[in-house]
Amino acid sequence: MPKRRITKAERERVEKILALLDAYYTTEYKCYLNHETPWQLLIATILSAQCTDERVNIVTKDLFVKYKTLEDFAKADIREMEKDIHSTGFYHNKAKNIIECARTLVTEYGGEVPSDIESLTKLAGVGRKTANVIRGNIYHEPSIVVDTHVKRISGKLGLTKEEDPIKIEFDLMDVLPKDHWILYNLQIIAHGRTICTARSPKCSECFLYPYCKWPGKI
Questions:
Q1: Any idea which positions bind [4Fe-4S] cluster (predicted)?
Q2: Which of 19, 39, 24, 15 is nearest to 133 (CA)?
Q3: In whole angstroms, what is the distance from residue 207 CA to residue 193 CA?
Q4: 212 known ligand binder
Q5: Residue 143 CA: distances (Å) to CA of 29, 101, 107, 139, 212
Q6: How many CB atoms sit inside 10 A of residue 155's CB?
Q7: Confidence band (pLDDT; 50, 70, 90) for 2?
Q8: Is 101 annotated as a binding residue?
Q9: What is the pLDDT of residue 5?
Q10: What are the structural domains of the chain?
Q11: Per the annotation, does 31 bind a ligand?
């Protein structure tokens, strides 16, 4: 994908946005999905598709007690797994993908979660979003995760005009400094949950208001 050309004015505008995000949300790294191992985060992220992190954390609290090892997941009965994860939605596909993914990790990777995006995206149920969650949180590889908050707010800020998550990812890789890729994800997720919410954004409270290009802002 061709690299997007960024003007000096755009760079300066992005720097001001990032400085405000850093000041408000700090530069502390925080993962919203509870986990103790890389494979637990991988499974939690698969479960998080079309589901809130809060719900996933409720489910995995018992799930990771019942299935203590990756081998336990690889040997799991799919019908029982469906019941265990039912409340996260899309449980048929998620159960199938989790078991298949666990089997691949056990048989082909010795139980280790790979760090490169090519290997990660070959695993069942793992797209670029899930792969980048692993790369950023486990291996600290600069990665951009395009979830619903990042997609929506990045568009409002004029950092991308795209709708496709992969195109948005590459736009943000061009416009954001690499040392802020992971932080931007975390900060925008927090912003989308507290201030720039999807249903009723609190425009009057938003410190990014001067930089917002959303025509519906109040």
A1: 196, 203, 206, 212
A2: 39
A3: 15
A4: yes
A5: 13, 21, 27, 10, 24
A6: 17
A7: low
A8: no
A9: 79
A10: 8-27+144-211 (1.10.1670.10), 38-137 (1.10.340.30)
A11: no
